[in-house]
Design goal:
By secondary structure, the protein is an alpha/beta fold. The chain has 14 helices and 13 strands. It is elongated. The N and C termini lie close together (8 Å). 42% of the residues are buried.
Length: 369
């Protein structure tokens, strides 16, 4: 397929290129005949970002860079602009406006309440204006649609799509026996997995209380950006022989492929900010575990109630409930594994939602060339 048309997609961090929502956007643009240039701060890596039709380019998110680059004629080669939340929205939205190109927004984070961040108000206002100017916006769970409307002062007719934090085509599972051998975990040991951000707001206290009480429980922690001192403490924790710490950040697909080697996944969000109390299927770790057939323990909030309806996990709000959840899943593991896969098919519905995204882009950008 000829890729004569080009898209410019702006990321907050380079590592987000492989995240499920960004993979969905890039895949949909490819399907419509676009090559995609990815813009992210920091050094530009050598070689393509994903394949020969996706490449990285440098950018800075601030007034000085925007004013110095806004009128450049190089932006004329792009047929569409898009961006993730929050800082990239201001740059991509302004470029689209000046160069008269369509723009759509992936609002994968809604920085409101106690999570509104440190951006100057003028920049935050520019980000919110960009959302209002977008042809359509994407959030990652139905619970976030109203949250987005409040955050950006969107009028009700504004077009908002939902695409989850899930790959439409999950990777094949890695070999469970080989992974457990690498991790030093016995083949039959009941094992809980922690993936992504891991701190005091993501259930660490409840987890380690359970780990201390249940000496048969094994842990795999695949945390991103773990401070060296925290790693040192965990390596010297009582029961450390039952704990595997991933030494570095895993690629998105590798983390997903390793999930079925564990028996239960963690999706706890204690942060009181609105975004974290409306997680639902925006949670990559939650979608990862369910799509790979792994039951979950999640924090009690309305957007997670579907987990107990499908009986593919338990909701908890205390250390004692956490321990009961571990025991419940251990005693019903086979059935809950099947229920997790069913929930991913029927509730998360990543393939169906990707098709809706692709069709929305096609309506905005025209037919495949």
């Amino acid at each position: 397929m000829s890729r004569a048309r080009k898209a410019a997609h702006f990321l907050l961090h380079r590592e987000l290129a492989g995240s499920p929502p960004n993979e969905a956007i890039i895949g949909a643009l490819h399907d419509l005949g676009f090559s995609v240039d990815l813009f992210a701060p920091g050094p530009t890596p050598s070689g393509p970002a994903v394949d020969d039709s996706v490449s990285f380019h440098p950018v800075e998110y601030g007034k000085r860079w925007l004013l110095g680059n806004l009128m450049s004629l190089r932006w004329q080669k792009y047929s569409v602009f898009s961006a993730t939340s929050e800082d990239p929205l201001a740059v991509a939205g302004a470029l689209a406006k000046v160069h008269r190109r369509p723009f759509f927004a992936l609002v994968d984070e809604i920085k409101s309440g106690s999570y509104q961040g440190d951006a100057p108000q003028y920049w935050k206002s520019l980000c919110q204006w960009a959302i209002r100017s977008a042809r359509f916006s994407i959030v990652n769970d139905e619970a976030r649609v109203e949250l987005l409307r409040q955050y950006a002062n969107l009028s009700p007719p504004s077009n908002v799509l939902v695409y989850p934090g899930s790959f439409r085509n999950p990777p094949l599972a890695a070999d469970r026996t080989s992974l457990r051998k690498k991790w030093g975990i016995p083949p039959s040991a009941f094992t809980l997995c922690v993936s992504g951000g891991f701190n005091e707001t993501s259930g660490a206290d409840w987890l380690f209380e359970c780990f201390k009480q249940d000496t048969t429980l094994h842990l795999v922690i695949q945390a991103v950006n773990m401070p060296p001192f925290t790693r040192l403490l965990l390596q010297n924790l009582a029961g450390a022989e039952r704990l595997y710490l991933e030494p570095g950040r895993l690629e998105w697909g590798d983390a997903w492929a390793s999930a079925p080697a564990c028996d239960v996944g963690l999706a706890i969000y204690k942060n009181p900010a609105p975004q974290f109390q409306n997680m639902g299927i925006s949670s990559n770790r939650l979608c990862m575990f369910l799509a790979m057939g792994v039951p979950v323990i999640a924090s009690r909030q309305p957007s997670f109630e579907f987990i107990e309806r499908y009986d593919c996990g338990r909701l908890v709000s205390s250390a004692s409930e956490f321990q009961l959840a571990v025991e419940h899943i251990r005693n019903n593991l086979d059935a809950m594994r099947s229920n997790a896969l069913k929930c991913a098919r029927e509730y998360i519905r990543a393939p169906e939602r990707w098709l809706a995204l692709r069709n929305e882009l096609a309506a905005m950008l025209g037919p495949v060339r």
